[in-house]
Design goal:
One of its GO terms (biological process) is xylan catabolic process. This protein is of the alpha/beta class and 410 residues long. 31% of the residues lie in helices and 24% in strands. It starts with 7 loop residues before the first strand and ends with a strand.
């Protein structure tokens, strides 16, 4: 099957050496180094490896063989379990490990009512607000230059009414959302993040993809809140929605004219969660194995899922929520690797798409008498190499165009 036209382009390059002389009739190798589209997964599984606490080299190799965008955890209850005691250095080390390997990074989330910092729950609201905004400034500022996008506010649709607290104590963030209102709270959060890193991509993210989320987005945009992209979660523990349902949902949110990030995607390779379960957290069986039948289904569905979303021009990234069954969310068999590290059919199927059909592997080409050659491929970053050296370039636009300046090979 062909790649959608809105994902590919052709760039005519003119290669020159350091003196400006054209590399005439030269044999070169051209290879893609990263997609413009974000093919992502959680980076949680590699935090210990990046910090030298364990050797997870096989997992790291499998991760990097498919993905180019990592989501790192900033859940405040884990990130700052006690006031001022943060995991900043540990997550920064992880971020650098990924960045050194050409991986883009996103932080998730800055404001959320779940995985709460329990020490905030008894504080007065003015102090909760101060600490919430200060936390945004601190994290975005501390990771500026490393993390380029953030889920600023997570699951705001239910935030003011969330009551599922294991300790029975209302969480501080929900109390703040009730008192301040969702729109003013989100506005303040986005403004703090923007001030801390004006170049960052700032997302609103939610699992509630109903009209309630659409109304909230309408209210925010009408109030002048600047949102860079919309996050849409699709944990399909109860079964793949199918292309028609998925694309109808994407179309509803595409009307806002903002890039869409499918931020949390899960497809199971085992028994599906019963359809009558409303809150996915309410179904966590003692054992939830991957099965041969489920793995075959997952492989088929992941190809269909990615093809349909890559085919939609509003979608800018897809993040698969957990590469491995080891430590998977809710214990569900949603990983692309089994708990023992072996690859499921879905892993191989996705790799064939992302680093096969949608990827320009190392290809030998020859320049003409003026040093020109035309490179066609999936929008993204590339490198050209020859005996004289190498140079990086990007195919940024659909259709065909000529690079405005010669590309110097050193």
């Amino acid at each position: 099957m062909s790649t959608p036209a809105h994902r590919v382009g052709e760039l005519v390059l003119r290669l020159v050496d350091a003196t400006g002389a054209p590399l005439s009739d030269h044999e070169v190798e051209v290879a893609q180094t990263r997609h413009a589209f974000g093919f992502g997964s959680t980076g949680f599984e590699l935090i210990a490896h990046a910090n030298g606490d364990e050797d997870a080299s096989p997992l790291a190799e499998d991760w990097l063989a498919v993905f180019d965008t990592a989501t790192l955890p900033f859940y405040r209850g884990d990130f700052e379990p006690r006031p001022g005691e943060t995991l900043t250095e540990r997550i920064r080390t992880t971020a650098r490990w990924f960045a050194d390997r050409g991986v883009r990074l996103k932080g998730h989330p800055l404001v959320w009512h779940t995985v709460k910092a329990a020490w905030m729950d008894a504080l007065p609201l003015d102090e909760v607000e101060r600490l919430t905004l200060a936390r945004i400034r601190r994290e975005v500022g501390d990771f500026r230059g490393l993390i380029e996008s953030w889920d600023v506010v997570n699951e705001a649709v239910i935030m003011p009414v969330f009551e599922n607290e294991p300790d029975g104590v209302p969480n501080a963030i929900s109390r703040l959302a009730q008192a301040k209102g969702r729109v003013p709270l989100i506005r303040a959060a986005f403004e703090e993040a923007r001030a801390a890193d004006p170049g960052a991509t700032l997302l609103l993210n939610d699992f509630d993809l109903s009209s309630a989320y659409e109304r909230l987005i309408d209210d925010l945009l009408e109030a002048g809140v600047r949102i860079d992209a919309l996050g849409l979660q699709t944990h399909m523990h109860q079964g793949y929605w199918g292309e028609e349902t998925m694309l109808a949902m994407v179309d509803r949110f595409a009307r806002f004219g903002l890039p869409l990030h499918l931020t949390e995607n899960t497809l199971l390779s085992g028994e599906l969660m019963p359809a009558d379960i409303v809150d996915l957290n309410d179904h966590q069986p003692e054992s939830w194995p991957s099965t041969p039948e489920g793995e075959a289904r997952q492989a088929d569905e992941i190809v269909r899922h990615y093809r349909s979303l890559v085919g939609h021009p509003a979608v800018q990234s897809i993040t698969y929520w957990g590469v491995s069954d080891r430590g998977a969310w809710l214990g569900a068999p949603g990983g692309l690797l089994r708990a023992d590290g072996s690859a499921k059919p879905a892993y191989d199927a996705l790799r064939k798409l992302v680093r096969g059909e949608w990827w320009l592997s190392s290809t030998r080409m020859r320049t003409d008498a003026d040093g020109r050659l035309a490179v066609s491929g999936f929008l993204g970053d590339y490198r050209v190499s020859c005996a004289r050296g190498s140079a990086d370039f990007a195919i940024e636009h659909t259709g065909a165009e000529a690079a405005p300046e010669p590309l110097v090979v050193r």
